[in-house]
Amino acid sequence: MAELQFREALRAAMTEEMERDENVYLIGEEVAEYDGAYKVSQGMLDQFGPKRIIDTPISESGFAGLSIGAAMMGLRPIVEFMTWNFTFVAFDQIVSNAAKVRYMSGGQASIPIVFRGGNGAAGQLGATHSNSFEALYSNVPGLKIIAPSNPDDAKGLLKSAIRDDNPVLFLESELMFGLRGEVSEAEDYTIPIGEARVAREGDDVTIVAHSKSYWLAMEAAEELAKQGIEATVIDPRTIRPYPIDAVIESVKKTNRLVVVDESQPFGGIASEVGFQIQRECFDYLDAPIERVTAEDVPAPYAKNLIEAWMPSVDETIAAVKKTLYM
Question: FRET label pair with 319: which of 9, 86, 238, 259, CA 20 to 30 Å apart?
Answer without folding.
Answer: 238
